[in-house]
Amino acid sequence: MGEALLKVEKLFCERDDRILFDGLSFEVHAGEVLQIEGQNGSGKTTLLRILSGLSRNFDGEIYWRGESLAGVMHDYRASLLYFGHQPGVKATLTPEENLNWYAALHPDIDAAGIGEALERVGLAGYEDVPCHNLSAGQHRRVSLARLYLSRAPLWILDEPFTAIDKKGVAEKEQLILSHAARGGAAILTTHHELTMTGLRRINLDHRAGTS
Q1: Computed from CA positions of residues 142, 144, 149, 153, in that sequence, does the dihedral angle turn out positive or negative?
Q2: How confident is the model at residue 208 (pLDDT cuts 50, 70, 90)?
Q3: Separation of alpha carbons 54 and 86, rounded Å
Q4: Angle between helices 95-105 and 136-144 (to 10 degrees)
Q5: Which residues form the ABC transporter domain (predicted)?
């Protein structure tokens, strides 16, 4: 299978005097999709924030392409697409302007695909509407449109199917699988029952105190 894109060794995290996970180790290789499962409060979002470099509240080691994450953080963040609970949309900008701003930060993205990306997430006709006039669900769709533009090898997605109908969920599943088939990898959480073939799962329930 070759060297892992991302390797996690003996991760420990405690929050509010409660151990979320201890001794958590796993690898993610190119072509893989990994679902993080667990009850509410088990640490799923905390883990994804740690993996995305947004939180340092942990002990253990994380490696990107065989090197300690602490030493390659700049390159890692350039290789990462993170989709969190907050959509990261500027309310004063339109959906099209938000994605143009995103594309300007990632030179490998072809801005010519922005219109199609917005159409794919159900925002055709809303391209020029200021985002402060859109619903919270539409804000998430603006953010989700980045998936159709991103060339980042690793996607970390926290509840990416929220506020999307069954057809939309199936389309996003296929998009993630296509990303993996191109040699990318994805780590995600979701309350939806996924039907992806080859999906790996890690359940954080009962991970506290394990080794």
Answers
A1: positive
A2: low
A3: 13
A4: 30
A5: 6-211
- 125: Cβ contacts below 8 Å, ≥ 6 apart: none
* Cβ neighbours for 40, distance < 8 A, ≥ 6 positions apart: none
Q: Which sign does the torsion angle of CA 95, 84, 140, 169 carry?
A: positive
CA 136 to each of CA 59, 99, 116: distance values in angstroms, whole numbers, following the listed order: 35, 17, 21
**Residue 197 per-residue DSSP state:** T
Residue 127, number of CB atoms within 10 A of its CB: 15
Under 8 Å between Cβ of 184 and 32: no
- pLDDT tens figures, 133-185: 999 989 999 999 999 999 999 999 999 988 788 888 889 999 999 999 999 99
Residues in CB range of 119: below 8 A, 6 or more apart: none
191 or 27, higher pLDDT: 27
CB 87, CB 142: distance < 8 Å: yes
Cα separation, 157 vs 209, in Å, equals: 26
- The count of other CB atoms within 10 Å of the CB of residue 170 is 14
CA dihedral sign of residues 184, 187, 192, 196:
positive
Please answer whether residues 149 and 117 qualify as being in contact, where contact means their C-beta atoms are separated by less than 8 angstroms: yes
Tell me the residue length of the chain. 211
